[in-house]
Amino acid sequence: MIKLGYPRFLLSGYIFLSLLGIWVVATAVVPAGHRPGCPAKCGDVDIPFPFGIGDQCAFHPGFGLDCTAVDGVKKPFAGTVEVTKISLTNGTATMNTAISRQCYVPATGTTNYSNGWLNLTNTPFWISEVDNTVIVIGCNTLAYMISSSGYVPIVLNWKIALQTCKEVRNESSYACVSSHSVCVDSTTHNPGYRCNCSDGYQGNPYIANGCRDIDECRRLANPCGDGICKNTPGNYSCSCHTGNYMTNGVCVPTQKKPSRFQAMPVIGASVGLVVLVIAVACACLIQERRKLRNMKLAYFRQHGGTILFEEMKSQQCNAFKIFSEEELQQATNRFSEKQVIGRGGHGTVYKGLLKSNVEVAVKRCMTIDEQHKKEFGKEMLILAQVNHRNVVKLLGCCLEVEVPMLVYEFVPNGTLFDLIHNNNHGWRISLATRLGIAHDSAEALSYLHSGASTPILHGDVKSSNILLDNNHKAKVSDFGASILAPTDESQFVTLVQGTCGYLDPEYMQTCQLTDKSDVYSFGVVLLELLTCKKPFNLDALGQEKSLSMMFMSAMKENRLEVMLDDGIKDEDNMEILEEIAELAKHCLEMSGENRPSMKEVAEKLDRLRKVMHHPWVQQNPEEMESLLGEPRAMAHSTIVSDQYFSIEKKAVTNLQSGR
């Protein structure tokens, strides 16, 4: 389908049109009005103002028409073009325009020419692109407009002046003189305006009082349907006859309302039902809350919360706090997975933010040993009194849940395990940094064993329980884990307290946790710092899976350098590395009695650290020996080595079999 914005008529020739502009308007028909004393018609065509017969009857000469008799019939002309219809509302004038043609006459062998120019320059008219359309269906189709008179109709738009409504409103030449008239700006690229009557009015807006109210109630179709229509200025209103009421613009019969006494039982029953439902819902809610409160209170008492509270009052312990479950849920965003910063055999650790804007680490334990439940509160108070720069501070706990939750201070820089084994940035960890971390950790364990008011055994010393701050200062966490360790979950857990690879072989035999068990586990941490190898490797084929067994074998065969991490191999450091390796070897002795105490380990590491800070000492053997102290007797090492390997292998075999 081809739609043309203005007519192109073809009848053995061409039409040439000079365009002034294009204007789109709506279509409607309203009664015409004219200036007093001027003809209202020319023949059968209404001539509404601003048009007029003669310039004196028009708004301005551009709207002046001639009324001329053609074959005895009067017709209006705009210049030489016949006007057949004028619409004020549309702002259009329909005219008959001559066809420009070039026709060949075979009889005479000549060509007749006829020019049908329509020159609209300096006129208020332009061709309407809305009302002049030719629709042609099909491809490669040629359309013909056939007219025996030699003329075709064309619709022109018009406007009053080349000014906008805003510009002309206060001028004497303003054309919208009727009350209830509105000014409409032209939508073409050239400025201009027309006038229309306001909604609810019709007539001629260009003459005084030309816009008259439309009486909608006198139309053939009552706009109120079966109702009563009342005309109002510019509008109408509807009402209903007695016994009816209006709904959605339609009158419907009024239902007889039941008497107040008849409605009372229905109202009473409805209100009673609503009250009953609300009462039952409230009762259920109160019962659930009471049940939850009683359950929380039972857990609190079960975990020794009452005793803990009394002890805190008597000791005036303000640094330790008993948290509610709701407080920790808010701090961790309802224990969101996004807040998880660690998972372990005993539980999951979440990062949290308290209302006081303090960052904390919240540990949700998986299970709790039944025999420790009643003493749990007391034990928490003992752990809360631990105060050492290298020990993660226990800030509080939550006892109103099935398994208690612990709240620790937050240490921002991850774990030693991550630094050694998950070093994705390729950072080189210097020997001084490793020695400093080892010394800090040893100081913390020494404090727990002998410096705290009540000796505390860690029970799960490993690199993932050693946290680091932004300066690589170490803080031991998860101390007292043996208190929370499950004892009835499986036979394997009953036998083993700790983590595979760090387990004390002597504990594997006796199931007795001692301070020397922590020493053994710390020896494995020393090996991790020296070798950057994991303590236990189940994927290793054809070689030892236990790092401690590999190390003891290397020491026995004098192959220490093979075990060391390439990042710290240095001839200047070899003597210190050998001292650290010898210390680790003592910590890994089979018999706990032959292992040093954590205090001795911390002192030894402190002396080595001082040697690192004063390198000139290494070049003075006497000063070096004085600083490091007398070496421990090693006579027993060879004797127990075979026993060590046999029992260690047995322990590994048991671990692999799931015991």
UniProtKB/TrEMBL annotation:
It comes from the Eukaryota. SMART domains: EGF (SM00181), EGF_CA (SM00179), S_TKc (SM00220). The keyword Endoplasmic reticulum does not apply. GO terms for biological process: cell surface receptor signaling pathway. It comes from Triticum turgidum subsp. durum. One of its GO terms (cellular component) is plasma membrane. The keyword Signal applies. Residues 335-617 form the Protein kinase domain. The chain crosses the membrane at residues 263-286. Pfam families: GUB_WAK_bind, PK_Tyr_Ser-Thr. It is a single-pass type I membrane protein. Its main location: membrane. This is Protein kinase domain-containing protein. Gene3D superfamilies: Laminin (2.10.25.10), Phosphorylase Kinase, domain 1 (3.30.200.20), Transferase(Phosphotransferase) domain 1 (1.10.510.10). One of its GO terms (molecular function) is polysaccharide binding.
